[in-house]
Amino acid sequence: MGKVSEFSFERLEVYNKAVQFADSIFDISDGFPAKLQFSLGEQLRRPALFIVNNLAEGSDKRFAKKKNKFYEYALDLARECIVMLTISALRDLMDKTSRRMHCYLQNVAATYLIR
User: Fold this and answer.
1) What is the 8-class DSSP label of residue 31?
2) Burial class (CB in 10 A: 0-12, 13-18, 19+), 49
3) What would the pLDDT profile of 44-103 be if each residue is shown by its tens digit?
4) What is the Cβ-side half-sphere exposure of residue 24, based on CA atoms within 13 angstroms?
5) Would you kindly state where each structural domain of the chain is located, as residue ranges?
6) Fewer CB near the terminus (10 Å): N or C of the chain?
7) Residue 8 Cα distances to 23, 31, 52, angstroms
8) How far is CA 10 from CA 4, 35, 67, 91, in A?
9) Which CATH architecture has domain 12-113?
10) Residues whose CB is less than 8 angstroms from the CB of residue 34 and which lie 6 or more positions away in sequence, other chains included
């Protein structure tokens, strides 16, 4: 089977980093206790996925104003993830690798989304 055609957003470095981040968020949140899977786990997974979705959707907009709106949404969602990761760290729900994800997201947000 041949390679599936590539969308332009799949070549964006920020998109690829966001996909890696979202995948890591699933690993982190899957380790949360059952009583926190919905309240904290879902609150962390959803914005991580929506960051990727907004980057993909925004990349195809013709006008910079519309494109930037989706990128602003992605930044807002990154802030949501930072809050959830901070709470997870305070509750000792993450190991050292997971805590590094917090720093990684801050770096990605600062490098690619804040203008």
Assistant:
1) T
2) middle
3) 999 999 999 999 999 989 899 999 999 999 989 988 988 888 888 888 888 776 667 767
4) 19
5) 12-113
6) N
7) 21, 34, 14
8) 12, 36, 16, 35
9) Up-down Bundle (1.20)
10) none
